Amino acid sequence: MPEKRHPSRKKFTRFSSKLPFQFGLPNVSPGLTQASDGSPTYLTRTTSLLRQQVLIHAPSVKIISDTVQPDVLTRDAWADTGFDRKRVLFLIPDDAIGDCVGMVLFLRAFMVKYPGAKIAVLNSGSASDIFATLPDITVFQLFISAKRLRTFDYLIDFSEMVGWKDIATMPVNPEEALCEAFGIAPIPLASGRSSKQLPGMKIGILPMASSPLRTLPPALVRETTEILAQTGFEVTLILNAYQGVMKKYKDTIGSFKTPNIRIIDGFKTIGNLVSFIREQDYVVLADSGPAHITKLFQTPGIGIYTSASARILQGRHQNLHLWQSSYKGDFCEAPCGLAKLRATASGKIGCMGSLSVPISELNNLPNNSDKALAERLVTENPVPCVADLVHQKERFFAFLCADLEI
To answer: Would you name any one GO CC term (predicted)?
Structure first.
């Protein structure tokens, strides 16, 4: 029976260069920087940073086509194809940390089932360090040469997963979805979970998410940090310097005089963040990329969830104990399923609770970013399900202390 292949769902750019070149994103470890290999042409995803900000300004580069769709194995053939001793290239549709952690967990299971397969990923972008946690994987963070592309037996386009395009309104669990699509059992998880108090225990607090719907309120973050530090733990508060609201958020939390509290504005690379999560004895996190990274190492802690479902996002992983906002209002209740702010037809930006409108009036994502609004939402006037975390803070502190047995 002939193998089922068809053009990829995502379009790619084909380009050539008369001169040698190398590229690497600033938030990816330098060891994953890519260089040309003498091939006549190269391929990159049209939406990538490379295409938008680098290639178009490079005098030695010639853009040949923006509509390349390489042949990929069809979605309905994934579970019926044998990949052992084959070279397989996975096309990564986005570099959101949570999505890519789920893909890495799936790839772990794929490598167990097909130990003789040679695998690689293309256009992993800012999440390249996450894929690099896998042994014996080739990471093409931004592009691949025509020469290397021809060496693969199969190309698999993760964009073909049904429902992933709706992730802004209803988060999914990529690990479970991909394992089901390929007919592969997820890898067994380490048994047991210990968060018992230890002398000098290292605790990381990571309160910032990419959306005000999921960033923790500063008042809760400050009190949580102080409670843990007073117990004698070494507490590190990690912010995100890549987010425009970070300075305002940090100023709102305020400074600490306790010597066992340190604040880090952010890490230069995702690899630094991954290493930090690996080294912590316990973490307290918002619904964000770091919460997913804990799955790679089964780091214990508490995940605090607001608009998104903790049960769906955490899936089968039990390393984090889950705290879900209990907000209920006239227009919504947590978890509503939104991952990002939405906009009304008139351009008002928020969510059902903050704007007092039904979901039917929030059909669009905002066209433009509004820094001032974002700052207000993460500091002064959080959306209702986030504000509810402060209203329920005493219950949360009791939950945290019980988990750590303090």
So the answer is: cytosol
Residues lower than pLDDT 70 in the chain = 1-2, 49, 162-172, 191-199
Yes or no: say if 21 and 35 are a contact pair by the CB < 8 Å rule: yes
> Residues 196-206: pLDDT tens digits?
666 689 999 99
Q: Take residue 301 and report the two structure tokens written for it.
A: 């802690």
Backbone angles phi, psi at 307, to 5 degrees: -75, -25
Question: pLDDT tens for residues 303-343?
Answer: 999 999 998 888 899 999 999 999 999 999 999 988 889 99
Do 308 and 183 form a contact (C-beta atoms < 8 A)?
no
d(CA 24, CA 44): 13
Please name the residue ranges forming H helices in 44-189: 49, 97-113, 128-131, 146-149, 174-182
The CATH number that domain 202-404 falls under is 3.40.50.2000
**Cβ atoms of 204 and 236 closer than 8 Å:** yes
